[in-house]
Amino acid sequence: MAMDVKRDPAILRRKKIRRMVFGAVGLVVLAGVTFYVMKLKPAAPLVDSDPWTGVVTVGDFVRDVRGAGTLVPEDIRWIPARTSGRVDKIVLRPGAQVKPDSIVLKLSNPDLQQQVRAAELAWKSGQATLANAQSGLKQTQINQEAAVKNAEQDFNYAKANLDANEELAKQNLISQIVLKQYRTQLEQASTRLEVAKSQLKNTMETLGSQIAPQEATVAQQRGAYENLIQQADELNVRAGMAGTLQLVPVEEGQQVGPGTQLARVANPTSLKATLRISETQTKDLAFGQQAEIDTRSGKVKGHVTRIDPAAQGGTVGVDVSLDGPLPPGSRADLSVDGTITIERLANIVQVGRPSFGQENGTVGMFKLSGDGKEASKVTVKLGRTSVNQVEVIEGLRPGDKVILSDMSQYDAFDRVRIK
């Protein structure tokens, strides 16, 4: 039967110490590995597609804004209805070339025709009344002139009588009483003559004021008649200018009232561009700024002549008058693109405008490494913007190559790998 051998306590103690040392070392190694793993950066993601890139440069910087629009005539005339009526006939259709006296459409208004006849009768009646009043005043004038003539004859007869009787009185052939009677007759004749002359003068002076009310009435009646005649003539709606008939927004048989727009005529030889510019880009727009209009068949220079005071649908309307002839085939309502130059700057650090970020804002951009296989995120402060370029204030230097396409899906990473 085997017997148990008692082990040496020193040996047991050494084994125990050795196990404790190995355990401690193992724990230290495990802690170190864990700390190292925790400190490792996450693997950089791989960008699936080839990104759009740009190189930071220094040079001239042209600030401009761009918008789409159409060519519109500078000389446009709407033709309104002057009176109510019914559209009897549309003589010309949109697209027709017209002259100022070209009849576009015809209206009818029986009530207006009746008013014309009534106004004509009233005017003629007023003329007859005026003629009658003028005749009466003329007869009064003649009577007054005849009275003056008679008074003059009576005065002359009385004076001659007095002169003759004064000679007889000197010879004591008549008495002083009779001579006094002749003198009284002369004074009476003189008074009648003065009265007749005064009445004639008063008649001549008041002749105009007496006839003025009737003349004013006739003038008013004539004006009303001529106004109605003009309205009746305007039932034949004319173009009023040479050009192209663009629009006839009414139909035959339609009843229209005064002020209704019946047609639109434009001069096709004088066109301007009306652009819609994003309201976020219009704060530096000003009258007179140079512009370039692209009709897709050619380009033409122009300048800003009007800016809408208010935005509509997030855009502002801007009119550009053209400084040169349009390319062949250009016509009204043709779609165009326009670029307006705001200012030109020299020696500006700039890069292609990224698909993200605002003017005078700060963005995160991925800067490519020398071999182009990786890109690291850097904070970039942007300045003024243009259509295709943006000013770089801080964060990049000339020669740096950065990613300009949308990288928002990699915002959580500080670096990415490029295929």
Rg, Cα atoms, Å = 53 Å
Average predicted confidence as pLDDT = 85
* Outline type: rod-shaped
Low-confidence stretches: 1-5
Spatial order of strands in the largest sheet: 3-12-15-14-13-16
Count all strands and give the number: 21
Major β-sheet, in short?
A: 6 strands, antiparallel, barrel
**Sheet/helix structural class:** alpha+beta
What distance lies between the first and last C-alpha atoms, to the nearest angstrom?
Answer: 78 Å
- Percent of residues in helices comes to 25-40%
Determine the number of helices (DSSP H or I, runs of at least 4 residues). Answer: 3
Beta-strand percent range: 25-35%
SSE string, helix = H, strand = E? Answer: HEEEEEEEHHEEEEEEEEEEEEEE
Short description:
By secondary structure, the protein is of the alpha+beta class. Helix content is 36%, strand content 33%. A hairpin with a 4-residue loop joins strand 13 (290-294) and strand 14.
Q: Characteristics of this structure?
A:
419 residues, alpha+beta, 6-stranded antiparallel beta barrel
Account of the protein in words:
- Residues 1-5 have low confidence and may be disordered.
- The strands form 4 sheets. A 6-stranded antiparallel barrel has the order 3-12-15-14-13-16. Strands 4-11-9-6 form a 4-stranded antiparallel beta sheet, with no helix packed on it. A 4-stranded antiparallel beta sheet has the order 8-7-5-10, with no helix packed on it.
- Helix 2 packs antiparallel against helix 3.
- The protein is built from 3 helices and 21 strands.
- The radius of gyration is 53 Å and the shape is rod-shaped.
- The protein has helices spanning 9-39, 110-170, 176-233; strands at 46-47, 53-55, 57-73, 76-80, 85-90, 97-98, 103-108, 236-238, 243-247, 255-256, 261-266, 271-278, 290-294, 299-307, 315-322, 335-352, 362-368, 374-385, 389-394, 401-403, 415-418.
- A hairpin with a 4-residue loop joins strand 13 (290-294) and strand 14.
- It is of the alpha+beta class.
